[in-house]
TrEMBL record:
NCBIfam families cross-referenced by the UniProt entry: TAT_signal_seq
Gene behind this protein: potD_1
Family (UniProt): Belongs to the bacterial solute-binding protein 1 family.
Protein name: Extracellular substrate-binding protein
Source species: Bordetella ansorpii
GO biological processes: thiamine transport
Amino acid sequence: MQNQNNASRRSFLKASGATLTAAAVGMPMIMTSRRAMAAGNLVVVSWGGNYRTAVEEALTKPFEKEFGVRVTLVDTPDLAKVKAQVMTRNVEWDVFDAVGPMAMTGSKNGYWEALDPAMFDQGDLIAPMTKEAVPFYGFTGGICWDNNRHPEGKHPETFADYFNVEKFPGQRTLRNRASETLEIALLADGVPADKIYPLDVDRAFRALNRIKPHIGKWVDQTPQTTSLVETGQVDFSYTYATRAKASLESGKPTGFSFKQNLIGLEYLVVLKNAPNKQNAMNYLKFAMRPDRQAALMDLHGNTPASKKAMDLMKPEVKKWLSNPANPNNVISNDAWWADHYDELTLKFKEWVLT
């Protein structure tokens, strides 16, 4: 059909120059049509599993209803894919749900649109926003296990325990990324929590070399951090309080340790030249409303970035929030990671494959 159209067009051009005028008139109509299509769509990159379900219920479905915008969720944020889209100017994603190191590295590399501070209640945020990123929530990383297979005294509760394969034999997981994993390795190797940064990278990799034979899975897909324990494919897993909460509430005998945790911030950002930029900005404002923050955190158990949302949350959910004052806990230094993320991501990926 396309060849026939081209042939007809060539014949017509030979017969008359009028087609040039028609094309000039038609092109704005096509562009207007595309803009109209974009105006009713939004692509949000999220984390899959029960997290995705919570985002759908608390954010995307209410957003669709309130704004008349169709939202498509894409699983597993990937900064390399962001880079490819931005560098080739073929941007397909709009909103990106990023852990702190990803968000700050993307800011440094120019991957995000600037945000208008007036969009948000600055005094209500648990941490300051940056020029391109607004805090979304605080998350808690820690160790989980199956209480039936590994009852009290038979499972690790700190990261030093996690690396002690003689006392706690079995297969483990770690995330397939440098951030969080290097911090865990240093804590396991005896570095005090308040001395973690700047990271001693060589020491971290030496510690990881010792545990590497006991890693049953380097996890990319976050839901696997608990599902691998539930199915008995690994004995212990590094996961998140939200995942352990969901697993326990689904009837699984999942335990989670609050004796030592990694605490980090999640951010929302908008990709540079996002095809649905205005919808994306509206989504960020919507996601940061205290009522939406409380609804989302009630479903997956993280610490809301909106202080006002805390009073709206269910008491039974608040018990899953970590204690930043615990001296064994480490709060992710996102500014440090912004200067080292790309370099250490490459080094870590190469190390995993060797």
